[in-house]
Specification:
Blueprint: H1 3-19, H2 28-41, H3 44-52, H4 66-73, E1 74-75, H5 93-111, H6 119-135, H7 139-150, H8 169-179, H9 182-197, H10 212-215, H11 217-227, H12 231-247, E2 248-249, E3 254-255, H13 275-289, H14 299-315, H15 338-353, H16 359-374, E4 401-402, H17 403-425
Antiparallel strand pairs: 1-4, 2-3
């Protein structure tokens, strides 16, 4: 088998391990052999698609085939139209709010008819809730409430305990904390209660890919905030640090996406660290720390790793203010990657606002990132240069726009708006006399 075919089979093998329909009585070793053959023949995608298309269902809810998930999450047209020229890079409430509203309006108009419970959309819903706070426009918040009601405030449960299917719980729990309506939390709590009594598998981490830290831990943290039951926080804490022990590189202060990348290298010989994967992690720190009590015994460990990553991310920022898909070999990737950039910007701005990061050092970083992201907004509000669904660095069109990246952008806008308003309240420094 060629190197390309082997790599493809490995990726598909991982998908089968996680998405295989356990109701189909085909031994896994046979599936693996079939996938290796299919990768050589160029047919592996159809095999996996057929397998995923018949998922084990729970309460009538099925996992979405990968091809359908990608198609519903975004697109990459050849002609997206001109870049917007009506946005200001100024860090003011008016300028930030205008950019957030332009992007949110475009995305809401396209996506609301096909809102789903998938992880891709979960990140968008987090951003839409933030956008209502930024802009003062309740439409975005109300759209999330409407979809939650349509889904009866339930999560996907076909792949338990897969973290991706718990990601929607962030929005459910944030909305629960607004009203304390029990129905908003009921299904999330039921699934998390099942999760916490599930024995760990010594052969495989629960959260074996770094993205998972954004998907499930913030839900557990919010359930603690809602109930006061520290078991949710303690469970999250145990599983988080098992994942960190496996995937966090203590020399580079970045996360490998998963164990497949421990020995793989970029073209320039550097380790492969995926931008969006690390964006998920840095964003997760903000999501978890914002509800974790200051006196929680393990909080200092989270803050320490968060600061390490923040320093590293700031140090490798591109000259255009953005980060590439592969963090340590920018020259290998033609375009900047906006979704990773958006989650970095969100988390770094949050850290400044919370007093965890030095404002003098990090404010210029988030300002440059914001200006860079604005340059990828099209006249109609499309946010481009977002890598499609993947698990590794890759290439894509300038027009590529996907809902999770828009969610990250709206989260970034919310924290930058808070930063701008805090700055406007501070008196200007007195000029020195000459």
């Amino acid at each position: 088998m060629t190197e390309h075919g082997t790599a493809k089979a490995v990726r598909l093998n991982d998908r089968v391990n996680d998405n295989v329909n356990t109701n189909i009585n085909i031994p896994i070793n046979i599936w693996r052999a079939l996938l290796e053959v299919a990768a050589v023949l160029g047919l592996a995608a159809s095999i996996v698609s057929a397998q995923v298309a018949q998922p084990k269902t729970t309460e009538g809810v099925a996992a979405t085939p990968l091809s359908e998930e990608r198609a519903s999450a975004g697109d990459s047209p050849d002609d997206p139209g001109p870049i917007a020229v009506d946005l200001s890079p100024a860090l003011t409430h008016a300028a930030i709010s205008k950019a957030a509203q332009k992007v949110a309006d475009w995305q809401l108009g396209r996506a609301e008819p096909i809102f789903s419970q998938q992880w891709t959309y979960a990140a968008l819903y987090d951003g839409l809730l933030a956008a209502s706070k930024t802009t003062g426009d309740p439409r975005y918040h109300d759209a999330v409430v409407k979809l939650a009601t349509r889904f009866d405030w339930k999560l996907l449960d076909a792949r338990f305990p897969h973290a991706d299917d718990m990601a929607l719980g962030q929005s459910y729990m944030d909305l629960y904390l607004e009203t304390h309506d029990p129905v908003r939390m009921a299904d999330v709590k039921t699934i998390l209660d099942r999760l916490m009594v599930r024995p760990d598998d010594p052969e495989k981490l629960l959260w074996w890919w770094c993205d998972a830290l954004f998907m499930a831990p913030p839900v557990l943290a919010r359930t603690f905030a809602a109930t006061g039951d520290r078991r949710y926080l303690d469970y999250m804490d145990r599983e988080w640090w098992q994942t960190s022990a496996s995937l966090y590189d203590s020399a580079d202060h970045l996360y490998f996406r998963d164990s497949r990348y421990f020995t793989q290298k970029e073209k320039n010989g550097q380790k492969i660290f995926w931008s969006r994967g690390n964006g998920w992690v840095l964003g997760a720190f903000a999501k978890v720390l914002e509800v974790m009590p200051n006196d929680y015994p393990g909080r200092g460990k989270y803050v320490a790793q968060y600061k390490q990553m923040a320093d590293r991310i700031a140090a490798i920022q591109g000259e255009d203010g953005l980060w590439r898909s592969g963090l340590l070999d920018a020259a290998a990737y033609d375009l900047p990657e906006v979704s990773g950039t958006a989650f970095f910007t969100y988390s770094l701005a949050w850290g400044i606002n919370q007093g965890l990061l030095d404002r003098a050092k990090f404010e210029p970083v988030v300002e440059r990132a914001w200006v860079g992201m604005l340059s990828h907004i099209y006249a109609d509000g499309r946010l481009g240069s977002i890598q499609p669904i993947d698990g590794q660095p890759g290439k894509f069109k300038p027009s590529a726009s996907y809902v999770y990246g828009v969610g990250g952008f709206l989260l970034a806008a919310s924290e930058l708006d808070a930063l701008a308003q805090d700055r406007s309240r501070k008196p200007p420094k007195a000029r020195s006399q000459r």
